Write the structure tokens for this entry.
Amino acid sequence: MNLVLSLLPILIVLVLLFIFKRSAVEAGVAACVTASVVSLTSRSFSLNGSQLLDAGIQGMLTTSVVVYVLIFGILLFHLMNEAGAIQTIAAFVAQATHHPTRQVLLLAVAFSPLLESASGFGLAMIVIAPILISLGFDRFKATLISLISLTAVPWGALATGTVIGANLADYPLQRLGTGSAILSVPTFFYFACLMVLVSGGFSALRKHFFEVLLVSSLLSGGIWFFNSFVSVELAGVFGAFVALAVELLFIRWSQRRPIDLSQKLETATGEIETRLSIFQAMSAYMLLIALLLVSRLVPSIAQYLSRTGVLHFPTYHFKLPLLYSPGFYLFLVCIFSIFAFKLSLPTVQKSIKQSLKQLRPVLLSTLGFVVMSQIMAEAGMTQLLSSSAALFFGPVLLYLSPVIGGLGGFLTGSNTGSNAMFIRLQLQTAQHLQMSPDLFAYAQNTSSSHLIMACPSRVLLAASIGGIPEQENQLLRTITFIGLGTVVLLILGILAAQWF
């Protein structure tokens, strides 16, 4: 009976999302309420009102880490979009080559991870799909490619989901980021091959196999390098920059001509001339990178920023260095963008309203899942579930860990939400099995991230953006099948890691 009660909050989430098709917000709130009721009424998991309140406050404080970064990441995207900077960058990338396969490599394999790493929330998909359609790609193919292009989710919004996972599990952030990058290497290549196959078939993949291998290797290698030696938060941005820059150089070398800097985006309906230069459009991202690099790589500055302006609640073991967090630098870059792009007050207000509208469901669902996780941990439910799973499955559970994480990402549409639900459970299970927690942590973080592209709510949004609502079911079936391939790759990756 105690095991059933422990499972009840998670079962509520699964039933609401998978059977009744309710939103992640509703599922998160319901799970939080269920965990509270069970912890207050069950003798085995009894928490008093004060302990329940403490768990709720702890969950809210943890969620604030996400909000601080995500609100300014989304706002930066909208400010740049209103200024035409996103269109300018996209036009530059599209104008670099007229070859469809290379346009996919530039836009979907390299540029999309850059957008996702800087902004998060699947905004890259919103940008990539319309551009591909305007370049003449079939609407279904363009929409599918834009979904597959969400490859850098572990580092989305400057790695907020990975940061939260590390915080909740009390696990070293750099180790989690680096391990996730290593386990993701085959998936980056897998996704790049799939995007080329969708756009041009097997003939395109055969002809451009070296380029596909080059770009995906640079992306995964760059992400691993910056996770290991610079900063987890910056890894996705830098890895994507490296892949984008080298592919542009490769295109210039292979075409034997300079890349056009006019930023005229040729579309099926004519030409769109952008008003910003590529250097102006990239200035906000370059400033963000510079600020983050200085704050991470100069020891005296890093120490000062991490000790100054710290939001500290010793009772809840919570610290948020406001000046060291990526959210602070996103805020500074937002201010810079307003003045650099000469945005009017109504435009800024419109961008803020759009950002708050997009933030609300993410905030509420994340809060629900994080508070649920905190209550379950404080009441002992997570410990019971992990010990029971260890007893029932034994060491085989390691190979099921990508399935568990992937299910969380598929249902919640959020790496943060999935980590909030399952990362504690996964690591405590490893402890009960007396196994290293590393592979459990990497599998959870990567599978929950890479299965987000198949989340039904994300697919619905993509179908709407691509103008193919009647093909939503076909899109969902296709991307779910692709997602299952990712889970298989991760399981094989775990087998390889154990072997070596």
